[in-house]
Amino acid sequence: MISLFLTIEENNQFVRMEQITEEIQKHQTKMELRDIFNQLQIATSVRPQKLKYYLNIISKFKDILKENFDSDDLVTIFSNRPLVRYLYHLNLIDNDALMDFCQLSKTNYFALYDLIDHQKFDRQKCRIYDEVDINDEGYIPDNHDELCLSGQCPDPVATIIQEDNLDEFQNLLDNNKIKINDKINSSIYDCIFTFEIRHSLIEYAARTGSVNIFKYLWLQNNLKLDYMLGSYATMGGNSEIIHIIHEENPSFIDESSIITAIEFHRNSVFEYFMNSCQPDYIDKIHNKLASVCIKTYNIEAYKMLKASYLDIRHHIDLFISAASVGFYNRVKKFLNYDNFDPNKISSKFGTNALIKAATENQYDIVTTLIESGKVNEMITNIMNQNAFIAAVNRNNYKIIKFLASLPTYQEYIRKDKIFVYDK
């Protein structure tokens, strides 16, 4: 399903929308739909330039979202600021959920500042409030909403780089309006890079796959290069840029860059990295790579690994990774495997799937695991915490109430001592 989201373009958007509609019609349960919308969130994160298409998808299926998910569900599924804003405009999430989302980071707070009910917003509980300094009257520009929903940096230099307009770029350099080591102004509207860090022109070109501007900058004297350039090139996915960097610095292909290729669904790059590494190197990290594949719904990369490393099929880390992100179909597959123990504690995570799901607020996965009858509800992790304590530590109220209702927890919990909030 995620491939349909990743490959949507101007010239195929209507065909892709029909295909997406067909897939959604095949999957009617809440858990299956959640899998699909989890994949849409990932697509939005790794292909922010296609945001307008993803907003159209949300608009088309707003009734399905409303019927199956409440506000808390939606801000758990969609962690992208423009998507959350758009969902709010569609009346699919309420102000309470919006305020919870704003407390996760100061970038969220800045970007959604105009939508918050400030009389209700508890500044004392906002862990990022002391980091922000906003002029309430002068902060919001007139086109703030439009900029937020664009997902693009409003800096005109960033736009020129994204469009890979070399003539315009050279014109700026020739007229001394920019210099080769200048940095792009950071912006809360930019979903390509994080708000807190300013990035160089060549980093922006690498991240957006703008090969013509990248090659031009690469040939300039006195160009300052950061060690993260290879990572940004991997995110951008342009093979020519990656080959240029690889020739200059063969060591840039390491575990981190391979993981980045998986996370950003740059699977041709991932295959190139795999073929460029010694087999024994991949052998040491293949289970870790497989876990990343599961967490990011990158089944294509997972299949490449499984073709060479058949033992990953039953690896406990993959099961826990699937549970942590709400990958329902993959969790169900693991539960159906013969001789597979879903209670096993992973040495990597220090916990099991149930506790990890409770920690990450994956309510539907928690219920699926327990209703399977194969999971020990009271098992503890290496910190001697069970799923209930994990949920309490993260204030995951819905999971707390569900676990507190189970007979196995009645002896564990003194009802007169537990206080479960109704949100």
UniProtKB/TrEMBL annotation:
InterPro entries xrefs: Ankyrin_rpt, Ankyrin_rpt-contain_sf
Annotated protein name in UniProt: Cortactin-binding protein
